[in-house]
Amino acid sequence: MADLKYYDIIQKPVITEKSMNDMADKKYYFYVHPNATKNQVREAIEKMFEGTKVEKVNTMNVGGKRKRTRSYKFGKTADRKKAIVKLTAESKEIELFQGM
Questions:
Q1: Fold of 6-89
Q2: 98 within 8 A of 58, measured Cβ to Cβ
């Protein structure tokens, strides 16, 4: 396994209705590197966003969807790993999601 740096672990935020509603509870959703562990995700969030303190991290592997190409052949989109990060009550909010 390659040595992952904190900026390689967090790939992009997940923007859905459910993730926007959970922001009130200080829960944030991110797509992360498939080989990242919960501790690595915790460290990456705390380093990337100043003033944040992570309380809990849940991860899940999301399988790719089956897609049909133009010639009736089937392929598959890429598998992903999603992380749900819950911040502590006294932690600062993540500014990436402000104004959404």
A1: Alpha-Beta Plaits (3.30.70)
A2: no
